[in-house]
Protein 1
Amino acid sequence: MTTETIEIVDNSFNNIDILGSWVEVGMVIGATIVGFIILLPTVRHFLKLNKTIHPCSTKFRGVHSRVHEFLTELRVKLHADRAVILQFHNGGSFLDGSSMKKFSSTHESCSVGVSGTASVRAGLLASNYIDMLEHLSLNTPDIHATSSISDCQFRRHLESNHTLVYSMMPIKDVRGVSVMGCLLIEWCNWDRADLIDEDKVSVIIPEYTRHISGQLHTGGT
């Protein structure tokens, strides 16, 4: 009787040991999963860095050459004076640690005699251009006269670049959710502005925005 009782007790302890082992395994697996989740942003950032294309590479040159070609084609078809891509980016931080939201011209095509604007569209603080951001949120290629905008930094910026009429269309990320920049078409003299066909604009600008967005998403930036 005593021996049988001892065997039963021993089996109970064995079951407890087995259960404890499974609990430990579960804790290890759980810790591994939590650690992976915590490190996931870092891993994604590392993979993104590894995918960065060198500016001298054939792919980089090919992607951005095609973007400039699209801008020139669009400008010519619409009789516009300037076609520009503005892209949002970070640029330092404020004293409270929040990131500075800026935008710069990354691609531009101008007609003969029209000055380029890349040098004056570099590192501009987005917080100074709320009217422009509100315009982008409409997500339409409508034509607007610069004179129709209320007095603001955006209007003064357009006037300083001799823009009489313009159209803007947001460029979104690969998911089509976040705005990563915009396509800006400008007319700087009334002779060309008088040639604007709004029906044509409503079709061509969204079409080219998709083409350009597709090129930028190939990893050439």
Note: Confidence is low (pLDDT under 50) at residues 5-9.
Protein 2
Amino acid sequence: MKALLFYQLGFLFFAITFLAMPKVGATEPTQLVSLRKGYVDAHVAAIEPITKKYYKALAELREKLVKGGNLEAALIVKSEENNTNKTEVSKQPRQLIALNRIYKQTTDRESAKVTKKYTRALKKLQDKLTRAGNLEGALMVKVEYQKVTLKERTSVQDRVKKFPDEIVDVKWYWMHGKERRDNTYFKLLKDGTGTFVNSQGPNKISWEKVGSHKLSISLPHSGTTTLTWNLDFSEFTGNDFGGKAPISGKR
């Protein structure tokens, strides 16, 4: 487990360092080198404790499933611990899906905080070097800034491109306040159809994409609703079919 963790952290360090690697032969301002080292160190420091908690939670979940005699689910969690999990999300244990969602949201949030501080510092350094007449150094800082911000934008754009692939073949549950209504959910299929289930039983639905994070879903005899997903597609908001009342939901 520890070996796997340090391997991931080592890869993270390499990825960040490679992203910011200067051109061969270029002499970077010492301030930029120092800022980058601080960025890498802060990034690793922010992600390491979250990752440790994540793998601890995976081990606890696996043990719980083993004690409950759920062999198939326990094996899936074990494969997640070994970074070999290729099971479709819809077939994974609900607890594992929740853990992965929380881990991703938390690491994305903390990573964004570190990156925001770094880009602010880069802008200040670029301005300082420009005013001092060090145009070559200022240009290097500008290139560094563009690389980092482009990586952040691309990450968001990649998620947008995956919509609606990110949300099909997954059960989406209606929420009642903060409580999930296990008897009310829908599941979408890639062909534009799906199933809505409530206390009255299953019903066929149809859907179409109407925005980067929006779907229009129609339920026969009940009407149509437009649901909007958040940035990482972990939850949605909108109105009930026919616009009767506001709703929200999660995986």
Note: Confidence is low (pLDDT under 50) at residues 19-24.
Protein 3
Amino acid sequence: MYRGLWNFITKYMDNSHAVSVFLPIIIVGWTIAGVLVGLVVCAFTGTGIISALADLICAGGYAGLILGLFGGCFFLYRIGV
């Protein structure tokens, strides 16, 4: 997933500018994925979404931070950017 997005972005811009686009897209993508997983868990457990909204946003934020930012940085480090 990281490699495919990186190749798509670098097809349209050089590496120095691609980093500025790559990391925010990865962070937002993982944040949205984390919130969606939380919504699915709430649907299966019968928890009210409004009552669990703070937990959903927190879980999405941590997913964006850990998997998005740190994962994206490790990926960029590994490919030598």
Note: DSSP finds three helices and no strands in the chain.
